[in-house]
């Protein structure tokens, strides 16, 4: 109930005498709420994003990932 109420998990764990890991592994699976809300938020976020694909060609292949990061031109010394 405390997690659903929005109480900070560190505070809940401290009050129960647990670590946060124990709190979440023992109690969080009891919460059967929020999946629909989380899915809605994810879908809404994805709907607002515009995705553009950048085709890799022989001219731009040396630019690294589609972020446009330049490839390292000098060898790294060991």
Calculate the mean pLDDT score and round it.
76
The run of helices and strands is: HHH
How many strands, which pairing sense, and closed or not: the largest β-sheet? Answer: none
Helix/sheet category: mainly alpha
Query: In angstroms, what is the radius of gyration?
Result: 23 Å
Straight-line N-to-C gap: 54 Å
Short description, anyone?
The protein is mainly α and 78 residues long. It has helices spanning 9-16, 20-27, 35-48.
Provide keyphrases for this structure.
78 residues, mainly alpha, 38% helix, elongated
Characterise this structure.
This protein is mainly alpha-helical and 78 residues long. Helices cover 38% and strands 0% of the residues. It has three helices and no strands. Helix 1 (9-16) packs across helix 2. The mean pLDDT is 76.
């Amino acid at each position: 109930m405390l997690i659903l109420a929005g109480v900070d998990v560190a505070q809940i764990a401290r009050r129960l005498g647990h670590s946060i890991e124990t709190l979440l592994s023992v109690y969080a699976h009891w919460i059967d709420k929020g999946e629909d809300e989380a899915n809605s938020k994810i879908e809404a976020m994805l709907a607002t994003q515009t995705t553009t694909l950048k085709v890799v060609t022989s001219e731009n292949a040396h630019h690294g990932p589609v972020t446009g990061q330049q490839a390292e031109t000098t060898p790294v010394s060991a």
